[in-house]
Design a protein that fits this description.
Aconitase, domain 3, Aconitase, domain 4, 3 domains, 7-stranded mixed β-barrel, 6-stranded mixed sheet, 30 strands
């Protein structure tokens, strides 16, 4: 039986009437995305069609999910909300704080030892507030969600940008910051700007070496890292129906890398098969009764130009395997073109590591297809040329794969079977020699490949591909290897042509697991006390941020003018810093240390206008804070791209940065800034970015008249005595302005409880 089956049945019972009501109001057929959005309106309030990309709308998600790194801050914030229990089903998953080093058994034991303080805090807090808890080793959050909680037509938010994985099971699953999650956990509406819609029509059928991963690698190349911002992507067509459920999940998952709010597929037979295989026939039974509402109205797919803001068509018959990277997930290169491109770009051709797994490619199907390539090594006397690491998606996947002999195939190649956790994907990888910063190439089936992302080495060129392609490249040891045309020389000096991958969509003998790692909360956790050691270096209770004083911010100094890509990894690095996610003061020592200073082209080196000296960004900002000097951060395009990491907003807020002014924001980061009571602004005239000098001071002219739809003006005084006025755009509505005035959204929630 599925978790929360009564909730699912309730959603389905209400869905038909809500959708039919919406269709009457709107006066046209609906896409699947619109059906799910309109059926999850807060209090079912709808009087007119919402304008895409403009209207802010309140929604009522069905559940919340949190991973351990982000859950710490989310739960610390929830504790301030004054609630006794979460208002909607919520889960916490321990998958980010496990370092990959020696292999699963040793690594998990070490993680439980080193991270016991955090894991104990998360488990006790979960038990107190009625939250389901998944122990370390149980699996990667998004795979566990797909296996246990996701359901067609539902709406979920999660404190991880790859929450969108659940779109593979027909769910609108959206990555958010912890403050957004707290709203829903506290029984409040969740606000989202009504998204635009991108339709992607898939025709044909995958064949040969091409996989579901190649669909999203191709899409990333088309849309780029910001092309999906403010949009939901809806996949449809016969090609979509031909994909497996976990293949659909792979595509939706990496949609986070193009900035999409989320991605979704309509309910079909592959989802039905997956639900049944994972023990949720009761969900299938319920879904079948309203299946016409779990996909778009036929008119939307027959004439998609009328229903989507943008339309892309991809013929799966013609799609080729891809490698994306390095240093950005949207640099798409067909495998057939890699030899020429790598030589032209000077990318290292020898591949040191192949890594298979992560939340986007760690299903049973992924492992079985990769194993079909790995098994050819023994048959053909091939010696693997690259090191190989495997991260199974969940204990259920790992246990079943081991039972069926798949794990042994990888072990025979002397690969490291890491814990059922994120590991190398998010910088939790103790890679030998990475500290030497040698220029090298790795290939993985993950979703992100920013500089320093996987191993901390800025010279590691990481390329994203499918698990089966990673396996083939690892056998060859070459970045420019094309298994469709190239051979590998075996130990007998014979040329071997690899056969295309094969695999099982689902295990023939069903899934099995002895201990899935789930801890059910007690009915009443009110007597559970949450204890945090006041001397802890990893956990610290939060203090409310100060409200706005109602005056114009004046005499503000420039902290940094960031140049080029400034992702959440640049603003608040992951890797070793993950262990400090529950201690805002300590983790703030990584604030903007990865951002490139426009004026000296260096990282973590900015001018302190009070002393005239250069120093690390957090140190300089702490000096400004101590001296009560307001500061501003200036950035480039798509600022805050990447993770849902709200620390990237909370750290500047904690250290008293007042304003972030950029060319453009990534969606989640902009929302996170608003939630924490900061000013997130964009240049009305993008060329004004060039006006800003290192010794500038800034005065707001009209912040005391802050209102929706009205620009703000910033007077900039330069060192030579000249001045400029910069017009700034914003997207704050009345509610969001009230967060700013209160000092944070949480401050406002708390005041409304008293």
């Amino acid at each position: 039986m599925a978790f929360d089956i009564d909730l699912i049945k309730k959603v389905y019972a209400e869905m038909s009437s809500r959708i039919e009501h919406a269709k009457k109001i709107i006066g046209k057929p609906l896409t699947l995305t619109e059906k799910v959005l309109y059926s999850h309106l807060w209090n079912n309030e709808i009087s007119n069609a919402y304008e895409r990309g403009t209207d802010y709308v309140d929604f009522s998600p069905d559940r919340v999910t949190c991973q351990d790194a982000t859950a710490q801050m989310a739960l610390l914030q929830f504790m301030q909300a004054g609630k006794q229990k979460v208002a909607v089903p919520t889960t916490v998953h321990c998958d980010h704080l496990i370092l990959a080093q020696s292999g699963a058994k040793k690594d998990l034991k070490q993680a439980n030892k080193v991270g016991s303080e955090v894991f104990d805090f998360l488990e006790s807090t979960s038990r107190k507030y009625g939250i389901g808890f998944w122990k370390p080793g149980s699996g990667i959050i998004h795979q566990v969600i797909l296996e246990n909680y996701a359901f067609p037509g539902g709406m979920m938010i999660g404190t991880d940008s790859h929450t969108v994985n659940a779109g593979g099971l027909g769910m609108l699953a959206i990555g958010v910051g912890g403050s957004d999650a707290v709203d829903v956990m506290a029984g409040m509406p969740w606000e989202l700007k009504f998204p635009k819609l991108i339709g992607i029509k898939l025709t044909g059928k995958l064949n040969g070496w091409t996989s579901a991963k190649d669909v999203i690698l191709k899409v990333a190349g088309i849309l780029t890292v910001k092309g999906g911002t403010g949009c939901i992507i809806e996949y449809f067509g016969e090609g979509a129906k031909s994909l497996s459920c976990t293949g659909k999940g792979t595509i939706c998952n990496m949609g986070a890398e193009i900035g999409a709010t989320t991605s979704i597929f309509g309910y079909d037979d592959s989802m039905k098969r997956y639900l049944k295989s994972t023990g949720r026939s009761d969900v299938v039974e319920a879904a079948e009764n309203i299946k016409h509402h779990l996909t778009a109205d036929s008119e939307a797919y027959e004439d998609p130009e009328k229903y989507f803001d943008q339309l892309i068509e991809i013929d799966l018959n013609k799609l080729s395997p891809h490698l994306n990277g390095p240093f950005t997930p949207d640099l798409a290169t067909p495998v057939s073109k890699m030899k020429e491109k790598a030589l032209n770009e000077g990318w290292p051709l020898d591949v040191d590591w192949g890594l298979i797994g992560s939340c986007t490619n760690s299903s049973y199907e992924d492992l079985s297809r990769a194993a079909s390539i790995a098994s050819q090594a023994k048959k053909n006397n091939l010696k693997i040329k690259s090191k190989l690491g495997i991260n199974p998606g969940s204990e259920q996947v790992r246990y079943t794969a081991e039972r069926d002999g798949l794990i042994k195939i990888f072990e025979d190649l002397e690969s490291k079977i890491f814990t059922n956790a994120c590991g190398p994907c998010i910088g939790q990888w103790d890679r030998e020699g990475a500290n030497k910063e040698k220029k090298n190439s790795i290939v993985h089936s993950f979703n992100r490949n920013f500089a320093k992302r996987n191993d901390g080495n800025p010279n590691t060129h990481a390329f994203v591909s499918s698990p089966e392609m990673v396996m083939a490249i690892a056998l060859s040891g070459r970045l420019d290897f094309n298994p469709i045309t190239d051979t590998i020389t075996n130990e007998d000096n014979k040329e071997i042509m690899l056969l295309p991958p094969t695999g099982d969509e689902l295990p023939k003998n069903g899934f099995s697991v002895e201990e899935n790692g789930y801890v059910d909360p007690p009915e009443d956790g009110s007597d559970i006390e949450i204890i945090v050691n006041p001397d802890s270096q990893r956990l610290k209770f939060l203090e409310p941020f100060e409200p706005w004083n109602g005056e114009n911010i004046s005499n503000a100094r420039l902290l940094i003018k960031a140049h080029g890509k400034c992702t959440t990894d640049h603003i608040s690095m992951a890797g070793p810093w993950l262990r400090l996610r529950g201690h805002l003061d300590n983790i703030s020592n990584n604030m903007l240390t990865g951002a490139v200073n426009y004026f000296n082209d260096e990282t973590n080196s900015v001018k302190n206008q009070l002393s005239g000296n250069y120093g690390p960004v957090p140190e300089v900002q702490r000096d400004y804070k101590f001296n009560q000097v307001p500061t501003i951060v200036v950035g480039d395009e798509n600022y805050g791209e990447g993770s849902s990491r709200e620390h990237a907003a909370m750290e500047p807020r904690f250290l008293d940065v007042k304003v972030v002014l950029v060319h453009s924001f990534a969606r989640i980061h902009e929302t996170n800034l608003k939630k924490q009571g900061m000013l997130g602004l964009t240049f009305s005239n993008k060329s004004d970015y060039d006006l800003i000098q290192e010794d500038d001071t800034f005065d707001f002219v009209d912040l005391d008249h802050f209102s929706p739809g009205k620009t703000l003006n910033l007077s900039v005084a330069h060192g030579d005595g000249s001045t400029d006025t910069i017009e700034c755009n914003h997207t704050y509505n009345e509610a969001q302005i009230s967060w700013f005035k209160a000092g944070s959204a949480l401050n406002l929630i708390r005041s409304e409880q008293s």
